[in-house]
Each structure stands twice: as structure tokens, then as C-alpha cells.
Design goal:
single chain, 504 residues, mainly beta, Immunoglobulin-like, five-stranded antiparallel β-sheet, five-stranded mixed β-sheet, 2 helices, 35 strands, 56% strand, CARDB domain-containing protein, membrane, transmembrane helix
């Protein structure tokens, strides 16, 4: 039953395989891997004996390699030979294959004399990692039968790498290792959406003698979404000296080598308008890969101009694990702007680790800057004064209007009206406000420090500032002269009385 099953599979697959098969005579088969999920063992097979004579039993060696990044604790390889091929053993168990290491096994193979095209070995791989996860992959290998006196057509590609998102010439050599062949036809096909052949995909060679070869080439467009590997399939037909027609198929792969290039689609800040003195400004960049290759483990750093610095360590860098071509990601940063920064556009360089550099411009807008120019009292205050009117002169030295300004004085020596609305202060404009306060009797004479809290609105934001000033207090007036008046009067009275008594 098993042989009958493979006979039916063979009869159904062979007509399609002549045109589109990717497996003949590929000796290395890699399982399809999700580029975003590689934290696992990945097992591949390599057949070292690619060609054996028909009707002769020969040892073939198969290498089992772990191309993943985790150890495969146990690997079971089940082999299912196709029709016209028999194997002495079909199950092999290997253990503890670490990443980038390999093990091999040997089995005896025999190809029937009725085989005129490559015969296949279907392999089922079952393996476990150290955490008990099980993986199953299917791989197809092929062996070419060596038939004495028959033509043996091979395709040998020239070069091993292609660039994505461009048209390029792909050359290969068609070689005859057997007897004379004629009417050689090659059908080229690129699977899926990896690319396309420009022009005709069918090539013809009239005749090739034993050992003769011919160089051919086609123009191929490689899709911008292709990365890692690119496969081209070739279905071949030829005739021998008896005009018997033979069919074969080959697949040859190329590395896709491109360059990731980073670009900034758009960017934004919070707050929307950045002002001098702003802290923890959130800068969000929408980054895209405008190159033709995937960017991996990419660090995107900001090179800040003078007057700007990261809000904290690492807030000027962002890591992107992977970014496919034409995809995008948001990168968030935080930075501080010094108070001394002038309004204008500032260039910020966006520096990457291996994907090119670009730059953006951050606009710093003008900011209102109200300051207290002078503080005076009417009348001149002294310790213990009541109902003193403080005259505070405020000037806006900034480059924007201060709207809805409010002033509050903070001092342990003053009570009363310590907060007052100032209103709008235009750019380079000034305003005076009166605050009626009482001075503590414990206040020292001379200059006492005052702390003014100024708040105002700008661009729908509430901004505050603290400035300091001084208020001059006179010395407290003494009342001791009032107590000396009675004493003076008493002394005068005594002198008058004494003079009256002394007169005769």
C-alpha cells in the first residue's frame, strides 16, 4: 500500500514538478522560518551524495544541521523514498544538536534502472527543544541517477547574491556531463511574489556534446519585499541520440543583499509648541525603512544641538528590533530645553547604527518673560506698619505676550493682600500693581527679601515663574520722649520752688 501511495503521488506531482519544482536537484533544504520568531532550533538537511549509478547500492550521507539559536535535544528523521528508489534504513534519531553544529547519518540507497529523472526522498523532521516544545518540518531531497551513455544536463548559476527592488542580469551555465543532447529547452520560473523574469522565460539550445556548456542570461526583477533568499526554478527537457525525451528540474538560490535606509515620515512634540525652559518635551518620530532590506537591532539616536539635552539617561535613544522595507514604527524621546535658548529652528540629527542618518528641525517658539523691576512702599514701611501699599513694577522682557498674568508675594513678614491679578502684559510692556499689606513687628529693619510667584497663560498653557526682590524697611520710631516730659516738668517745678525759698 505504501508503494502504491507513493506511485500515485509521483504520477500526480511529476508533471507539475517539471515546470515549477523548487527541489530538483537541491541538496540543502531549509524550513520556512518566520523572521520574527527565530528563538528556536531549526533543523536543515544536506545530502552529500548527489548522484549515484542506477542498479547499484551505494551509501549516501545526510548531514543534519541546527541553524537555529537553541539546542535541539532530540531529532527524529523519517525518510520516505519515492518510486524507483529504495533505502536500507528510513528512521534515524540524533540527540543534542547545538546551534550551528551538525551530525550525520548514512543509509544505503539504490535507484531502479527505470529512473530517467531525479528521484526524491521525502523527509519528516520531528525535534524538541529544551523546554519540551516540539517542531515538525518536511524536507524534500533528490538524487540524480547516473545512466551510462545518456545526456546529463546541469545548470550552474553564476554569482550568489542579488539586490532587491531592481532589475539585474542573472547568468548561468548549461552543461552536459553525459552523452550528446539536442533540443534542449529550459523554462525559468520565480515562485510567489519574490520577483519576475523580464521578457521570455523560455530558453533553447540546439545541441550540446559531452562536456560542452553554454552561457545564458536573463533579466530578473527582485521584489523589494524579498529578503534573505531568492529562488529560481528551472524545468529542463532534452532528447538523446534516440530522440527519447528526458525531463529534469533544478532550483538555484541566491542571497538577497540590500541596504536598510531610515527616513522620518513625520514627527510631533508634546507640548505642540516648544518654549525655552520646557522640561520633558516628548518628541515622537514616525520612522520608516525606505531601503531595500530589513533593518535588524537598529539603534536610533538623537544628536541634540546646544541648549537641548536628554531629560534622563537614555531618553535620546530608541531601539528597533526589526523593521521591514516600507514599514514604519513610532520612536519616542524626551528632552529638556534650556531657558537661554533663543526662538528659532534647531537641527536635530537622527543617527542610526547601520541604516544611514537623517535630520529633522525642531521649532522653539518665543516665550513671555515677566520680571519684577522695582518694589516700593507708600508710605515707607517699617516693622509693625499697617496698611502699607506695595507698588510692584512688572515688565515682560520676553518675545511673546503674557496673558492673564497673576502676581503673588511670599514673605513671612507680610500679610494681607498678597495675591493680585495683573492681566495681559504685552511683549516688552510693563505694568504696575498695588498690594496692601501689613508688616510684622518682628521684621528686621533694612532690606527684607521677597519672593514673587508669577503665573500667566501662553498658547493655552499655564506657565509659572519665581523671581526675588527686596523691600526696604525703616527703623522703628521710638516713643521714649513721651515718658521724659513729666520728669522735665518735675525738674523745672523743683527749680522754681527752690528759687522762691532762697529769696529773702
Amino acid at each position: 500500500m505504501r508503494k502504491l501511495f507513493f506511485l500515485l503521488v509521483f504520477l500526480l506531482i511529476i508533471p507539475v514538478a517539471q515546470i515549477e519544482s523548487q527541489q530538483i536537484p537541491v541538496q540543502i533544504q531549509l524550513p520556512r522560518i518566520n523572521p520574527n520568531q527565530t528563538d528556536r532550533p531549526v533543523i536543515s538537511l544536506e545530502l552529500l551524495d548527489k548522484r549515484i549509478e542506477v542498479e547499484k547500492e551505494r551509501n549516501i550521507t545526510i548531514v543534519v544541521k541546527n541553524i537555529g539559536n537553541k539546542t535541539a535535544k532530540e531529532v527524529i528523521v523519517d525518510l520516505y523514498p519515492s518510486i524507483f528508489l529504495s533505502l536500507s534504513e528510513t528512521r534515524f534519531v540524533l540527540r543534542n544538536i547545538t546551534p550551528n553544529s551538525s551530525k550525520s547519518f548514512v543509509t544505503k540507497a539504490k535507484i531502479s534502472k527505470y529512473a530517467s529523472t531525479p528521484v526524491e526522498i521525502w523527509a519528516r523532521l520531528t525535534y524538541w527543544d529544551g523546554e519540551g516544545n516540539v517542531y515538525t518540518d518536511y524536507v524534500q531531497l533528490s538524487i540524480e541517477p547516473a545512466i551510462p551513455g545518456l545526456p546529463d544536463i546541469r545548470i550552474i548559476p553564476s554569482g550568489s547574491s542579488l539586490s532587491p527592488d531592481r532589475v539585474q542580469k542573472v547568468s548561468f551555465r548549461v552543461m552536459n556531463l553525459g552523452g550528446r543532447a539536442h533540443n534542449i529547452t529550459i523554462y525559468l520560473q520565480i515562485p510567489g511574489n519574490m520577483g519576475a523574469i523580464i521578457g521570455q522565460g523560455m530558453l533553447k539550445i540546439d545541441e550540446l556534446e559531452r562536456g560542452e556548456s553554454r552561457e545564458l542570461s536573463v533579466d530578473v526583477f527582485v521584489s523589494p519585499n524579498a529578503y534573505g533568499a531568492f529562488v529560481m526554478n528551472a524545468a529542463i527537457s532534452w532528447q538523446d541520440y534516440r530522440n527519447f525525451t528526458f525531463y529534469g528540474a533544478q532550483s538555484f538560490g541566491y542571497k538577497v543583499m540590500g541596504e536598510p535606509v531610515i527616513g522620518v515620515i513625520t514627527y510631533s512634540t508634546y507640548p505642540d509648541k516648544v518654549l525655552p525652559g520646557d522640561k520633558r518635551v516628548r518628541l515622537v518620530l514616525v520612522i520608516t525603512n525606505v531601503g531595500n532590506y530589513i533593518a535588524r537591532d537598529l539603534w536610533v539616536n538623537l544628536s541634540l544641538p546646544n541648549g537641548m539635552r536628554p531629560s534622563f539617561g537614555g531618553s535620546d535613544t530608541f531601539r528597533i528590533p526589526a523593521l521591514l522595507p516600507n514599514s514604519q514604527v513610532q520612536a519616542s524621546y524626551q528632552l529638556d530645553v534650556d531657558d537661554e535658548v533663543k526662538p528659532g529652528n534647531y537641527r536635530i540629527d537622527v543617527v542610526t547604527s547601520g541604516a544611514g542618518n537623517t535630520s529633522i528641525y525642531l521649532t522653539v517658539f518665543g516665550k513671555a518673560d515677566p520680571c519684577v523691576l522695582n518694589v516700593s512702599s507708600i508710605p515707607r514701611a517699617s516693622p509693625g506698619s499697617r496698611g502699607v501699599k506695595l507698588n510692584v513694577l512688572i515688565k515682560n522682557n520676553g518675545s511673546a505676550d503674557a496673558e492673564d498674568a497673576r502676581l503673588e508675594v511670599i514673605s513671612p513678614y507680610l500679610t494681607g493682600t498678597t495675591s493680585v491679578a495683573v492681566g495681559n502684559i504685552p511683549q516688552n510692556g510693563s505694568k504696575s500693581v498695588i498690594m496692601e499689606v501689613d508688616v510684622s513687628e518682628y521684621a528686621p529693619s533694612g532690606y527684607i527679601p521677597l519672593e514673587f510667584h508669577i503665573t500667566w497663560s501662553q498658547d493655552s498653557r499655564t506657565i509659572s515663574k519665581v523671581v526675588t526682590a527686596q523691600l526696604s524697611l525703616e527703623e522703628r520710631r521710638s516713643n521714649s520722649y513721651l515718658y521724659s516730659i513729666p520728669i522735665v516738668l518735675l525738674v523745672i517745678s523743683l527749680i522754681v520752688i527752690l528759687r522762691k525759698r532762697i529769696r529773702p
